[in-house]
């Protein structure tokens, strides 16, 4: 009899384009230096903390017992460090990367490795060196959050003490050497979506980073798909997303933009 899986969770993901295997580095409590109003982590009863040996066992159980029974038309697209907080804040980041890389290479060599990050540690030398090594050697993909192009929007969407400038400069320094996927939540807060000025500042920010040497593999614009505990945010419509995408694409021609509405990916 196997113990239940509590550190890994297969989900069908809009942005992965299929099945994604999430890994939670914080099963005991939410751990993040952001407090996004749209955060989908509901309060949960704390479990024992993350241990690499538990992840190792769960990955083996998943791939040897559960995954072979999955429908063949639902292949695993990626193994993703995400879960109940900011994965790069975990002291187990390096061992978790090593374990998901070993499982990917052994069981699903065509799948991606992904770290979904709020970008606050991309400028920290140790974290950047670790993530950069996995980008170079294992094809790790970094999904870097940028939810605002100006200080006000950033503060509203993150409610974080981390300075906006520090986040922006971290994205720049990391992505000069390792291309990243920029991920941006566009949602309404208290019934009001991002203003045209906010979107214009966001497009300007991306353009200026590119001008200074940043490399963006793709931009993902997405809206809220599930309710949040606070209940102050709501999805914006497909038309608003497409309008935002048009505005951004005019400022950064040549960078692919993918748009994810509430029900799935949109095409322009
Ligand atoms: S960065 Fe992610 S985990 Fe942290 S508060 Fe925002 S949505 Fe939640």
Q: Terminal Cα separation, in Å?
A: 49 Å
Net shape = globular
The CATH architecture would be Alpha-Beta Barrel
Radius of gyration: 18 Å
Short summary of the structure?
The chain has 268 residues and is of the alpha/beta class. The protein has 7 helices and 11 strands.
Keywords:
about 270 residues, binds iron/sulfur cluster, 7 helices, two-stranded antiparallel sheet, TIM Barrel, about 20% strand, alpha/beta, 9-stranded mixed β-sheet, globular
What does this structure look like?
- This protein is of the alpha/beta class and 268 residues long.
- The protein has a single domain, classed as TIM Barrel (Alpha-Beta Barrel).
- Helix content is 36%, strand content 22%.
- It has helices at 52-66, 93-107, 125-138, 151-158, 164-177, 196-211, 238-251; strands spanning 8-13, 18-24, 76-82, 112-117, 141-145, 180-185, 187-189, 216-222, 233-235, 257-261, 264-266.
- A nine-stranded mixed sheet has the order 1-2-3-4-5-6-8-10-11.
- Helix 1 packs parallel to helix 2 (93-107) and helix 6 (196-211) runs parallel beside helix 7 (238-251).
- The chain is globular and about 50 Å long.
- The structure holds iron/sulfur cluster.
- Iron/sulfur cluster binds at residues 32, 34-36, 39, 41, 85-86, 118.
């Amino acid at each position: 009899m196997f113990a239940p899986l509590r550190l890994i969770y297969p989900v069908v993901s809009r942005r992965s384009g299929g099945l994604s295997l999430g890994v939670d580095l914080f099963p005991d409590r939410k751990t993040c230096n952001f407090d996004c109003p749209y955060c989908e982590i509901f309060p949960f009863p704390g479990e024992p903390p993350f241990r690499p040996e538990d992840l190792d066992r769960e990955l083996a159980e998943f791939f040897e017992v559960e995954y072979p029974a999955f429908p063949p038309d639902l292949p695993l697209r990626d193994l993703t460090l995400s879960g109940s907080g900011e994965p790069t804040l975990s002291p187990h980041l390096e061992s978790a990367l090593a374990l998901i890389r070993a499982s990917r290479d052994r069981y699903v060599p065509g799948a991606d490795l992904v770290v979904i990050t709020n970008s606050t540690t991309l400028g920290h030398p140790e974290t950047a060196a670790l993530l950069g090594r996995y980008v170079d050697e294992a094809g790790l993909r970094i999904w870097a959050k940028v939810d605002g192009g100006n200080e006000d929007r950033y503060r509203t969407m993150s409610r974080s003490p981390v300075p906006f400038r520090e986040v922006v400069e971290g994205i720049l320094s990391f992505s000069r050497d390792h291309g990243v996927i920029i991920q941006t939540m566009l949602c309404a807060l208290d019934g009001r979506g991002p203003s045209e000025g906010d979107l214009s500042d966001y497009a300007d920010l991306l353009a200026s980073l590119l001008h200074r040497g940043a490399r963006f593999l793709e931009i993902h614009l997405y809206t809220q798909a599930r309710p949040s505990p606070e209940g102050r945010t709501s999805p914006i419509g497909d038309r608003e997303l497409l309008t935002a995408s048009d505005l951004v694409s005019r400022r950064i021609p040549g960078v692919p933009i993918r748009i994810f509405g509430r029900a799935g990916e949109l095409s322009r």
